[in-house]
Amino acid sequence: MPILDPNSLEFLSRSADQTRRVGMRLGAILQLGDVVCLEGELGSGKTTLAQGIAAGWGSLDPVSSPTFVLVNIYRRSDGDRLAHLDAYRLNDALEAEALDLDILLEAGPLIVEWARRIEQALPDDHLWVDLNYVDSEARGLQFTARGQRYEGLLEVLQESVFGVI
Ligand SMILES: Nc1ncnc2c1ncn2[C@@H]1O[C@H](COP(=O)(O)OP(=O)(O)OP(=O)(O)O)[C@@H](O)[C@H]1O
Ligand SMILES: [Mg+2]
């Protein structure tokens, strides 16, 4: 349910499909340079949410877990590129800095799984999403906006998901 803090939005997802649908709403409003940070334990739904985000953004490519390749790049017909980074195997922000995130952000939005591990290498302004395992089919999703761009984005997302501001 929506809560009163304008910088955060909480949502209880009751299925993987519902998580994908919320992701699609978010993906549809992402712009070049936007950063979405995903944090949550193993199996909490980070990649599932990323699948929805990529679909809503208009990816021509299927989403897979980037755990072993570090970063996946998905294409869109207008030439933009969505980057999907998994920081699980990175040891610290220094390793992330070697990835030239700025260059990725010039081509499109960026999604980061296990974002806490490399938080210092990420832009201060971003959308943060905490995912929590509730039970086998339910996950708690908490979206937090950091910076003006993301406060606006969260308002639009809230309107899109709940139909109210
Ligand atoms: N409400 C839900 N939202 C998201 N996933 C759900 C939900 N209910 C069940 N699931 C299942 O939980 C699993 C989530 O896996 P997923 O790979 O998305 O997690 P992850 O956070 O990316 O894990 P990892 O840390 O290993 O990368 C999937 O098998 C998915 O079908
Ligand atoms: Mg994952």
C-alpha-based Rg, rounded: 15 Å
Number of helices: 5
Architecture (CATH level 2) name: 3-Layer(aba) Sandwich
Attached small molecules: adenosine-5'-triphosphate, magnesium ion
Low-pLDDT ranges: none
Count of all domains = 1
- From the helix content, strand content and strand pairing, which structural class follows? alpha/beta
The end-to-end span amounts to: 12 Å
**Strand elements, count:** 7
Q: Return the average pLDDT rounded to an integer.
A: 92
Helix content estimate: 25-40%
List the helices and strands and how they pair.
Elements: E1 8-13, H1 16-29, E2 35-39, H2 46-57, E3 71-75, E4 81-86, H3 93-97, H4 101-107, E5 110-113, E6 126-135, E7 138-146, H5 148-162
Helix pairs in contact: 1-2, 1-5
The protein binds adenosine-5'-triphosphate and magnesium ion.
Summarize this structure as a short list of keywords or feature phrases.
single chain, 165 residues, alpha/beta, seven-stranded mixed sheet, 7 strands, globular, binds adenosine-5'-triphosphate, binds magnesium ion
What do these coordinates show?
With 165 residues, this protein is an alpha/beta fold. The chain has one domain: Rossmann fold (3-Layer(aba) Sandwich). The chain contains five helices and seven strands, in the order βαβαββααβββα. α1 packs across α5. The termini are close together. The mean pLDDT is 92. Adenosine-5'-triphosphate binds next to α1, α2 and β7.
